[in-house]
Amino acid sequence: MKEHAQEQKKAARRGSRADKAAEAERDVLAKIAETPDSDRILAERVHAIITADST
Domain residue spans in the chain? Predict the structure, then answer.
């Protein structure tokens, strides 16, 4: 458990902000893909709304 926490801290220190954002995006999309169909459709729509450029 402590080793995992140390790995996470090292990973957090490495990489740019864009890299971290891209990794977070992949994690979210992976979790959405794991959900059942009805929930996945809703989650995809919510994610699209949240990540849409509001300019």
Answer: 16-55
